[in-house]
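Notes from the pairing session

We agreed to fold both candidates in a single pass and log them together. This is the raw record for the first candidate, unedited. Please don't reformat it; downstream parsing expects exactly this layout.

Candidate A
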Amino acid sequence: MIDPISIANQNSAPVPEANPRVPVKMLGQDEFLKLLVTQMQNQDPLAPMQDTEFIAQMAQFTSLEQSRQMSDDMSVMRKEQGMQHAVGLLGQHVTVAFGEGERMSGTVREVQKENGEPKIVINGRSFDLQDVIHVSATDGDKKTETQ
């Protein structure tokens, strides 16, 4: 008697390794409109697209576009808020942590923008705001500690 499992194993070819997935570009407004026009041109004449389906697709696209715009606006606001925070540190004595546990303290004398991100300058070196671990307000010769 022939065993179907052994026959299947004899005829099976090795499965090729899957290709790594290539990131797919997100659909933009132009691609969406092209897709919609193609869908309308190739619809079944006996069962055309309902106007409610068309309106729902347009509403979804509008919502998606507004969400994308809001995300872009929030990113700009975050960068501007970071710049305002950096400017607020001008004249303040700060301590930054960087590298492998290194620390540096000094008075912030300058604020720069590198690649759209604010940087504070201490003793001639620029640091990200996230590197700040301690701030002390200087009032003449007195320092008021804050963390």
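Candidate B (folded immediately after A)
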Amino acid sequence: ADRHLTPPQLPTEYKILTNVQFDEQIKVAQKLGTGFMLTETAGLDGNFEQVADAADRHLTSFATWEWKSFCRETPETINSTSQNAAFGACKTGYGQNWNSTTNLPVKASRYARTYARAVAGNVVSMKFDRLSTKAEFSLKYIL
């Protein structure tokens, strides 16, 4: 698993560096003979779409962070060295309250991406375009 966070000295628009990071992490996974996935995607700088698009280009799965909008501390858990709270894990962070109308996370439309769950063949490319009028998904594979 790899974390993709934007270094503070770089601008948000850095597609080439995103691709380089994916390329290098995939090489490491191949060298170690392991799988690869991306965790804790994109930090606070708003470049999630670039990172998710790069994950599609590299046929890599990813997980986002802080879906839960809750945690509860007690005096004991606040002073504890553990990351666990009485409920949740406040020290590791948590997201915004969910939308009270839709009952979905505030950024659900941003994070929800179509992907191929299983393919009978070898995937060549995959892309989800949430900004198109139809939220288009394309998949190319070889049998």
